[in-house]
Write a structure and sequence with these properties.
The protein has 24 helices and 25 strands. The protein is an alpha/beta fold. A 6-stranded antiparallel beta sheet has the order 6-7-3-5-4-11, with helices on one face. A 5-stranded parallel beta sheet has the order 16-17-20-15-21, with helices on both faces. The chain has a 3-stranded antiparallel beta sheet with strand order 1-2-8. Helix 13 runs parallel beside helix 15. It starts with a helix and ends with a strand.
């Protein structure tokens, strides 16, 4: 089959007509061309035609969400027992450029499957939710083409594919034990074979990072190991990328990051993977890493406040400075502007940074600005009850509460026995949604109900990341409060500087004062209702919002299929938060004639996607949905502490039992089996001079 423009576009349109979402990959490669990879897959014929018109030679791939594709890498029959490949050959079948096979199935009704690596057998992967496969007539440069097996083309809709064989489901669910899970990098000599190079170098980098080495130092060490031990050596650029990726974490976080699959690297193979997911039995969202510097800049007043905050801070932190400036802009423009969706500028912002990182400085800057422009009444620092919030907003409908250690408030709300703190969160949820209408206060004895029109209640909270995430539960993730928050995570503390006492620049005060003196829309009708000024979005901005909304809906649907309530709650609010941020961007960029243009929409959508993915990744690591998940994390904590002290030495089971002395034998065995099945730990049985013993350690490739 020839690989030409007509074949590729025709194949893409044909698959889309069968309800298989498609997207383009780079010509001659398996790497996606679209910004969000398989998440951009669609059946929209107009979008598909635009893609291949712009990139006629782009390879073709389909998202495997809702499917199961068995991917055998190589021509050998790799399954023990008769009849297994015969079962697979009844499905639509493709040959890969290296002589492998793809078999296409659908899971049973109600079953959600994940991508796996070598779970069914060595060199046999699966592609499911969170993955994709390249399909015919795509071609890999200097290797060959993807082709459909004669008579086994993919010509039926997704919902008419054969159901995956029962033995596949059973093998995917079966935990593996002991010798199977020994590190694939262990060989008789010191060489690191192909297929294990990425995993091994990442593991080495984690050890170096724990000792405090910088990215440059790790790059130098990894390059030497790569040249001397990897067979064949990886590209230098790939080695350097591993070092940079691991260096994002503080030394004491490096091991945990690897265990929880936070480090951005190919998994289980040196080849570019067809999927971006982990084991079938656990899904840990990938951490997108630090907020890109370009997303920390917003033209106009926000940039001015950020620059002033950084210039006067003992420890400048761009993330915290932006969090503070966004909060200030939100309350200044509160009740002054709206967009076509009736979005308002009220925000709940949380800045996460380590102890001593200067979390209080942006709060002090906001306070100084509001005091100097005569708006001190818009500033609060604590609320003890829901009634107190209502009373404050009745007097001042646009307020900013700046709260340190927000995790404490969350913890009290989830652990307190009285209903006072639960009432606070209920009112905060109502206030957020009432920003475009009105909030009816609670009835009080002897007093009529009062109404707060279009309240703008803003929060700028700060907390230490580990304390914050350990204070939240699945219930708190799904009740809507955290889903409404814009959570920004800072990196390591910046280099200190001698803080200079500088007056607030006149330009900041002039624009800030202008905002608080603005009246409602002068062109509104005679209706006495408060009518904020309408800020319109350009056609190009509306296109960006639509694409982001569709992408967020796909993420929501994927979370719904795997019954991920937290993911559903957070993705459900992504588009709404992006619209609010775009409105704030417009107000900051041009206070006299604000307009939501293309840069505003692009910034807001990219910003919200980044912080949403980071929040989901961190929440998956730190929150425990039930006691078993808590035990799983405790087991990993013990092995992490062991590795920090003893390196890669195996931990005897009796020592591990001593640290988990309150656990029953059954609980230990169940948790160990689960972690082995998830490929997060390894187990070995060996003799140490007496009777054989059992040993554990963190997975080399985890």
């Amino acid at each position: 089959m020839t690989n030409n423009t007509h074949d590729l576009l025709a194949a893409a349109l044909r698959l889309a007509s069968l309800c298989f979402p498609v997207f383009p990959c780079r010509p001659g490669e398996k790497r996606p061309l679209t910004p969000n990879g398989f998440r951009d897959a669609t059946t929209d014929t107009q979008q598909i035609e635009e893609w291949w018109s712009a990139h006629p030679d782009a390879n073709l791939a389909i998202s495997t969400a809702g499917l199961l594709v068995v991917d055998r890498d190589g021509p050998e029959n790799l399954w023990p027992g008769p009849g297994r490949e015969t079962d697979l050959s009844e499905a639509p079948t493709a040959t890969t450029p290296r002589g492998g096979r793809h078999w296409f199935f659908r899971p049973p009704e109600g079953v959600v499957l994940r991508c796996t690596s070598s779970r069914l057998a060595p060199q046999v992967d699966t592609r499911a939710d969170g993955g994709y496969v390249v399909v015919a007539p795509s071609r890999i440069t200097d290797v060959g083409e993807y082709e459909w097996a004669p008579g086994r083309e993919l010509i039926v809709p997704a919902d008419r594919l054969p159901i995956v064989p029962q033995w596949v489901l059973e093998d995917l669910d079966r935990p593996r034990v002991h010798i199977e899970f020994l590190s694939p990098t262990r060989t008789d000599d010191s060489s690191i074979p192909a297929g294990s190079r990425n995993d091994t170098l990442t593991r080495v980098a984690g050890g170096l990072r724990r000792q405090g080495l910088s990215a440059d130092a790790m790059q130098a060490a990894l390059r030497v190991i790569n040249q001397e031990r990897c067979r064949p050596p990886l590209d230098v650029q790939e080695v350097d990328r591993i070092a940079v990726s691991v260096s994002r974490y503080q030394p004491d976080q490096a091991t945990v990051a690897m265990i929880e699959r936070m480090i951005d690297r190919p998994h289980g193979s040196d080849e570019p993977p067809d999927d971006l997911a982990g084991p079938a039995s656990v899904v840990v969202p990938s951490d997108p890493g630090p907020m890109p510097p370009g997303l920390l800049r917003v033209p106009g007043l926000i940039n001015q406040v950020v620059d002033y905050t950084l210039a006067t801070a003992p420890y400048p932190d761009p993330v915290l400075a932006l969090a503070g400036a966004l909060s200030l802009m939100a309350v200044l423009a509160g009740r002054r502007v709206r967009d076509e969706m009736e979005s308002r500028t009220n925000l709940y912002v949380l800045g996460l940074a380590g102890s001593g990182a200067g979390k209080d400085h942006p709060r002090r800057i906001n306070q100084r600005i509001l005091v100097e422009i005569g708006a001190a009444g818009r500033l609060g620092n604590a609320f003890a009850s829901g009634e107190g919030i209502e009373d404050w907003l009745l007097e001042q409908p646009a307020v900013l509460f700046q709260i340190d250690e927000l995790d404490g408030l969350l913890r009290r709300a989830t652990q307190a026995r009285d209903s006072r703190h639960e009432q606070i969160f209920s009112i905060l949820l109502q206030m957020y949604s009432a920003a475009s209408s009105h909030y009816v206060m609670r009835a009080r004895a002897g007093r009529p109900r009062q109404v707060i029109e279009q309240p703008c209640f803003c929060i700028f909270g700060t907390a230490v990341p580990s304390q914050f995430f350990s204070s939240i539960s699945t219930a708190l993730l799904t009740n809507g409060f955290l889903a409404r928050m814009v959570i920004l995570t800072s990196g390591s503390r910046g280099r200190g500087q001698e803080p200079m006492s500088q007056p607030i620049p006149p330009g900041i005060l002039e624009v800030a004062r202008w905002w608080i003196t603005q009246e409602p829309d002068p062109e509104a009708d005679a209706n006495p209702r408060h009518v904020p000024r309408l800020v319109e979005a350009s056609p190009e901005a509306l296109q960006v919002f639509r694409a982001f909304r569709e992408a967020a809906e796909q993420e929501y649907a994927a979370a719904e299929r795997r019954d991920d309530q937290a993911g559903m709650a957070i993705w459900a609010r992504a588009h709404e938060k992006a619209r609010r941020l775009a409105l704030i961007y417009a107000a900051s960029a041009d206070h006299l004639e604000p307009r939501i243009d293309l840069p505003a929409a692009q910034w807001a959508c990219q910003f919200i996607e980044q912080q949403t993915r980071q929040m989901l990744a961190m929440a998956a690591i730190h929150t425990s949905e039930n006691s078993f998940d808590g035990q799983r994390k405790r087991f990993l904590d013990v092995l992490t502490a062991w590795r920090l002290k003893n390196g890669d030495a195996w931990m005897p089971a009796w020592k591990l039992r001593r640290q988990l002395s309150s656990w029953s034998t059954t609980a230990l065995e169940e948790v160990a089996a689960t972690l082995i099945g998830q490929r997060l730990i390894e187990s070995d049985a060996r003799s140490t001079g007496g009777r054989p013993g059992v040993f554990f350690r963190l997975s080399a490739g985890g």
